[in-house]
Amino acid sequence: MLSRVGTKDILIITQKGINFFDTSPYYGITKSETVLGKALKGIPREKYILSTKVGRYGPKEFDFSAERVTKSVHEVRNLLLFATVSMLYFCLILFCCGSPSSVLVC
């Protein structure tokens, strides 16, 4: 039921001109990406901006390692059914890990 309501709501707001969507694996433990991916499936990718987050996977579960960030991006792309996201945020990195340069080295 929630998926159907979420999908319907997303379609309505895109028709009204809203084109920015933000999600995270932490929102509903991947439910957000799954519903959003299904709802946006028929809308051309260039018609909206999509952001997501990496690093937070539970109330006290944080992982900003290069390996986990890379895995998270692949997971999100699969859940959203898209090859690209417009923006990628590191969620709450300063609250748990110190400076960003000490966390992720590519």
Please state the second-level CATH architecture: Alpha-Beta Barrel
Briefly, what CATH class? Answer: Alpha Beta
What structural class results from the helix and strand content? alpha/beta
Tally of distinct domains = 1
Secondary-structure element string: HEHEEEHEH
Number of helices: 4
From the spread of the alpha carbons, the general shape counts as elongated
Strand order of the largest sheet: 1-2-5
pLDDT < 50 stretches: 102-106
Brief summary:
The protein has 106 residues and is an alpha/beta fold. It contains four helices and five strands, in the order αβαβββαβα.
Structure characterization notes:
With 106 residues, the protein is of the alpha/beta class. The protein has one domain (2-102): NADP-dependent oxidoreductase domain (TIM Barrel, Alpha-Beta Barrel). Helix content is 41%, strand content 17%. The protein has helices spanning 2-15, 31-40, 66-80, 93-96, and strands at residues 20-22, 49-54, 56-58, 61-62, 87-90. The strands form 2 sheets. Strands 1-2-5 form a 3-stranded parallel sheet, with helices on one face. The chain has a two-stranded antiparallel ribbon with strand order 3-4. A hairpin with a 2-residue loop joins strand 3 and strand 4 (61-62). Helix 1 crosses helix 2. The termini are far apart. Residues 102-106 have low confidence and may be disordered.
